[in-house]
Amino acid sequence: MTISGKDAGTIARASFVGTALEWYDYYLFGTAAALVFNRLFFTTMDPTAALLASFATFGVGFAARPIGAVLFGYIGDRYGRRPALLATIVMIGIATGLIGFLPDFGTIGLAAPILLAVLRLVQGLAVGGEWGGAVTMAIEHAPVEKRGRFAALVQVGSPVGTLLSAGAFSLVLLFPSETFDAWGWRIPFLMAFPLLLVALWIRVRVEESPIFKDLLAQEETVKVPALDVFRNAGGRLVVAVMAALLGVGGFYMITTFIVSYGSNTLGVDRQVMVNATLIAAVAQIFVTVAMGRLAEKIGPGKVTMWGGILTAAASFPIFAMVDTKSPLMITLAITLGIVLIAVAYAVNGALLTELFPPKLRYSGVALGYNIAGATSGFMPLLATAMLGFSGNQSWGAALILVLIALITAVGGFLGERLRVQDKRIVAAD
Questions:
Q1: Is the pTM of this model over 0.70?
Q2: Separation in Å, CA 372 to CA 11, 33, 237, 289, 344
Q3: N or C end of the chain, less CB within 10 A?
Q4: Are the beta carbons of 104 and 173 closer than 8 angstroms?
Q5: What is the pLDDT of residues 253-270, one digit of tens each?
């Protein structure tokens, strides 16, 4: 199969836009869970219980993601990558925008946190199919020698989404506290609507994957792809979950949990915590692009393995830096943490897509990534609960990060040895 480099780049950029919107929505919710929802939607609880309830709502979206992976994996492997991706991006954008209109507990009582959880579930279902489809489309349009960089371009959507969401929150945090609580926090959520229109306009113009077209022509599609993944590729699925764990769970440990820990436990100004994530996101972009190129030379599994090892080694020092309460040290800690996690995350797309044959690819990638997400989405909740056992000391959270980093290192080591050879795309120019 042949495809022009220009067309491959267009597809990768369209996939990047969807991933950027996904991360904008998810990081936005995580920041709001740490700074807003605990005070406005769970007001009848004591502060610690309210924060735990807020993070539990945050984690509900991750629990829904494997269900979304099954649903949209079925559509993507049976009827096409393109229709699945159009549906997911619409669901994500609408659910996020509606949160901006949601009345708080003081207005509608118990219905407020219930509706918040429902919208989070919708987000989770959609995201369950979004990333897996985005990287599948990018890889299946990419010339073989450029797969690492095109998969990494999709991953750049993560720091861009972070920049957009953290930047939006930084601006509204400039409002007086009363204004921020009354309506200022809603603005970043409402911005999801115009972002959705832009993303949808770009994605409508995307052509179907040539590899999927070949599957249809050869009548090689599978009736129940998710079932076949569990039945015939269960070991590969476990490796995919391991390899993806750090990129999802580690990110939220460094951002969502540390933002909450710094502002609520250490008493650091909220603006300092959010601004640190902005700086880290900029650094992540450059690391992600570099790791994509490195994966083309040494393999994505090896990059993943070393990313996990380096993150594990730096976990305790990172939290020790945060504990100083120094704005400079906190910024350095968050930046270092995100950069190290980005080493493994940058190549998740390249590694996971080559763990599964094309007829199971969308479902396998989506399930692997989102089972990891369902597991790690509750990491901020677990880390917050650990503070109670450790007397508000950060060593428990650091230990959690070490564990998931080492699991990912093993996943990368095994994944490099399990990569499949499918029908390859070559460049026509």
A1: yes
A2: 26, 20, 10, 23, 14
A3: C
A4: no
A5: 887 788 878 887 888 887
